[in-house]
Amino acid sequence: MCDTTHASPHDAALSAPRPVLGTAVDPITLQPVDEVRVTVLMDNTFDALLVGDGHTTRTGFGPAATPAGQFESGQTAVGLLAEHGFSALVTVRRGDQETTLMFDAGLSPSGIITNADRLGISLDGLQGVVLSHGHFDHAGGLGGLACRLGSGRMPMIVHPYAWTRRRIQDSRSTFDMPTLSKKALNGEGFEIIERTQPSLLVDGSVLITGEVDRTTDFEHGMPAPHQAWHGAGWQHDPHVIDDQALVVHIKDRGLVVLTGCGHAGVINIVRHAQRLTGVTALHALLGGFHLSGPAFEPVIAPTIAALSDIAPHLIAPGHCTGWRAQHALAAALPDAWVASSSGTTYRLTRT
């Protein structure tokens, strides 16, 4: 979730960078792949007028086949849904072998299923689900996905803190976030795999980072209103320690890093992925950067400075990145930045 409350110096001190809990696995041999396709099933925006390019395919309006009596034909064309949430299908190819995973599941129970249908995407070949963290705007569509998949067990990688009760409380109101239920997800057919450490999937060609090292001096995490229940009471939860990213290494190109909200800080995440894999080149960075609102806007400039040094070939910020950060990123990295939108597919290859 995004919060727009100003953080105090005390809040910043509470959320100062700290090492990740546990022992990092370093280095990790991440097997290179020939191609990665990332299809954004759900994002905060949908723009039917966006134009694709060599590595980006856009989705416009579909055929005029939706019932609507106010038109002479009795039908109208619709686009895709957009909501405050994120979900992406990630397909990796090595030779002639392809594997597809779902990374996050959007906000609403039916959103990702509706968009998949409008895109003509079958989810029958889905081979696993990865949750970036436990916030409800990344897990709301899991019930709809379970209904679509029917019987059978679908593996799902989560951090054990994804079940944490959380809320946003300030002087004016309290918002209790919907909390994920492990029991319910098990009952719906998901095979829960809890990991705090890095995980290698798809024959070693997909890395799930697990907990991310917090090493920068500017990515301080969530401000004081973001709280978590710790058994005896509510406490400030700056770190969202369950935040994790998905990483793939394209042969001869570099890393592709996909974030959900980037609560660990996108620069922390990229540097963590580089350290774990030993691969320094960043080919693409996609997903939520969580730079929206007054509490995070001071992080925009140092984030852009660090990204300029890293020099990714493609950057596609979405979801909770925020309009100020989007404008600044587009101005600073014009050759790399592209606008995100529900229904966009990024095809990234070694050639």
**Strand line-up of the largest beta sheet:** 2-20-1-5-6-7-8-11
Number of strands: 20
CATH topology: Metallo-beta-lactamase, Chain A
Question: Mean pLDDT across all residues, rounded?
Answer: 92
The CATH class is: Alpha Beta
What can you tell me about this protein's structure?
It is a single chain. With 351 residues, the protein is an alpha+beta fold. It has one domain (19-60, 80-349): Ribonuclease Z/Hydroxyacylglutathione hydrolase-like (Metallo-beta-lactamase, Chain A). The protein is 18% helix and 25% strand. It has seven helices and 20 strands. The chain has helices spanning 9-14, 111-119, 142-149, 182-187, 266-277, 300-310, 323-332, and strands at residues 35-42, 56-57, 66-67, 75-76, 87-94, 97-103, 129-130, 154-158, 166-169, 174-176, 190-194, 199-201, 206-208, 226-229, 234-236, 246-250, 254-259, 282-288, 314-318, 345-349. The strands form four sheets. It has an eight-stranded mixed beta sheet with strand order 2-20-1-5-6-7-8-11. Strand 14 and strand 15 form a beta hairpin. Residues 2-7 and 9-25 have low confidence and may be disordered.
